[in-house]
Amino acid sequence: MEHHDAAQPLSPRTRVVALGRPERVPGAPLNPPVTFTSTYIQDGPVNYARVDNPTWTPFEEAVGELEGGDALLYSSGMAAVQAALSLVPVGGVVVAPAAAYNGVVVTLTEAQRDGRLDVRWVDVTDDAATTAALPGADLLWLESPSNPLLEVADIAGLTAAAHEAGALVVVDNTFATPLLQRPLEDGADVVVHSATKYLSGHSDVILGLTVTPDTDAGRELHARLARHRTLGGAIAGPMEAWLALRGLRTLSLRLERACANAADLAERLATHPRVSRVRYPGWGAIVSVEVAGDGDDAAAAEALAAGTRIWSPSTSLGGVESQLERRRRQPGEPEAVPVGLVRLSVGVEDVDDLWADLKQALDRI
Ligand SMILES: *Cc1c(COP(=O)(O)O)cnc(C)c1O
């Protein structure tokens, strides 16, 4: 990568394959090794493996470069979320979406109940209402497209408004991935990822990341987040980090197929009489549908999830395997999410097979 002409930046499709490789010297392996160790011989740059592990580094470098900043790897997306929220002082004010990933909503609700944070819940698709909530805020939390309502926020506009009010901006970029959206380029201070989802892509690891910009302010945030990770101890296992990097190699291929499948399915789903609403922002690979039952939408949605053969009825998303779930079965899911909403994480299988499976399940409701 070092020898590439900087005037001709490499496409992200190339970068997901090329980034995070060992140095190109004779005899070097093509892939980074996995380092299983708890400690290091003293007087080196790092003395204990809760602080750093060389297996984290290539994945952090790859995702950091894709997002345009410096990444830190954590044991889960929620560990990255907790690290980002640790940037808010006790008693601080957070402006947050009323409908977002339920782990974030529950964390903020309980922090408010316990008097640790003051949360102002907003509809982040409403620019005026979100901007009006910003004066005096310490942090604006955005998730776009949101899980599972697929609401899209104006990241650049709201970030500018938040900075004017003196608030930091965190963007959960899990649904978009850096191939479809780069919030740091829109001015965000921290990007959060559940690498469990698209970045690793095979439903076989739980991991998370924060990414901060390569600026003085960004480096200071990075240092605070790294300290939070070391002291909080929510660190990744080396094997998981290695699997995630392997998964990242095919991110652009997986996403291309999954996005094309999602666009196709969003259209077909809209034609089915059991589907009362399709939520799909026009891009990405998640489609949420509202299922119409005869007076019991929740039961109809459960029947859809239980009636498929290829689609896996399981929580989580972003894997090569198509998955679906009625979201309100999760305790803590915001009430803004309709009881009959089923979130479809569209995988890379043949789209006609995926549609036939959904159709037969919908037909049998
Ligand atoms: C899954 C998810 C998280 C939490 O990540 P984990 O890896 O499950 O801890 C956070 N945000 C979004 C948008 C998610 O989908």
Automatic annotation (TrEMBL):
GO molecular function per UniProt: cystathionine gamma-lyase activity; homocysteine desulfhydrase activity; methionine gamma-lyase activity; pyridoxal phosphate binding
Top enzyme class: lyase
Signal peptide residues on this chain, from the entry's feature table: none
Organism (species): Janibacter indicus
Family: Belongs to the trans-sulfuration enzymes family.
Catalytic activity field: L-methionine + H2O = methanethiol + 2-oxobutanoate + NH4(+); L-homocysteine + H2O = 2-oxobutanoate + hydrogen sulfide + NH4(+) + H(+)
InterPro entries reported for this sequence: Cys/Met-Metab_PyrdxlP-dep_enz, Cys_met_metab_PP, PyrdxlP-dep_Trfase, PyrdxlP-dep_Trfase_major, PyrdxlP-dep_Trfase_small
Entry keywords, A to Z: Pyridoxal phosphate
Protein name (database record): homocysteine desulfhydrase
Gene Ontology BP terms: cysteine biosynthetic process via cystathionine; transsulfuration
Chain segments annotated as coiled-coil in the UniProt record: none
Modified residues (N6-(pyridoxal phosphate)lysine): 197
Cofactor names: pyridoxal 5'-phosphate
Repeat found in the keyword field: no
Enzyme Commission number(s) from the entry: 4.4.1.2
High-level lineage: Bacteria, Bacillati, Actinomycetota, Actinomycetes, Micrococcales
Keyword Isomerase in annotation: no
Cellular-component GO terms for this entry: cytoplasm
UniProt xrefs under Pfam families: Cys_Met_Meta_PP
